[in-house]
Amino acid sequence: MSRSTVSLPPGYFDGIYAGNPDPWGFTTSAYEGAKYDATLAALSRDTYDAALEIGCSIGVLTQRLAGRCTRLLSLDVAENALEAARARCADSPHVSFLRAAVPDEWPPGRFDLIVLSEVLYFFSRDDLARIAEHMVRAVKPGAEIVLVHWTGETNYPLSGDDAVETLVARTAGILEPHRQTRTERYRLDVLRTLGAAP
Question: Which pTM value belongs to this model?
Fold first, then answer.
């Protein structure tokens, strides 16, 4: 299987959603539902003041995260996906959405929760390094970063394991692994800040 050597562009995702409004079965898959359950269970706090979700897709996880956040900003590169996410979360005015392509378009502000679910392997190592730089500047003291990624074969720039390990290595000294679990199909990692954020 041939891997892309560069981060996947926004047009790749626009094309996917143009052909299927739920291309990964987020609304119907028992696997996705169980993974979302595990993601929410991994959060150590009942409520986070300011949260950031990178790659919200059609907002299925966003809708569930909303109940644990005072403010939640969710990003995606595909406008079709964002339209669906906005509709799904229409009764949650504390959730806002932004079309943005990280690392070039990282939002301002600092957060005590950052969630990256099934997105890191879409990036090259160089772009993951830039994401790590943004992340360590964006975390509040005591913040948590939740990473959830499929570990099967893909033709994306990186595997789930390579992507997560790259980000962990790039944030070492600022963030440290707090919880790491694996199932047969995905890994879930929670990182926490060490002391005061820079």
Answer: 0.95
CA atoms within 13 Å, Cβ hemisphere of 20: 9
* Domains along the chain with CATH numbers: 10-193 (3.40.50.150)
Angstrom distance (rounded) from CA 133 to CA 138: 9
Helical ranges in the chain per DSSP H:
10-19, 30-41, 60-65, 79-88, 125-138, 160-170
Q: Using alpha carbons, select from 117, 123, 119, 115 the residue that is nearest to residue 158.
A: 123
Contacts of 33 (CB under 8 A, 6+ apart): none
Residue partners of 6: CB distance under 8 A and separation at least 6: 124, 157
Report which of 131, 161, 153, 149 is spatially closest to residue 186, judged by C-alpha positions: 149
Other C-beta atoms closer than 10 Å to the C-beta of 186 total: 20
**What's the CA gap between 114 and 98, in Å, rounded?**
15
Residue-wise pLDDT tens digits, 155-186: 999 999 999 999 999 999 999 999 999 999 99
Amino acid at 95: V
Integer-rounded Cα Rg, in Å, for the chain is 16
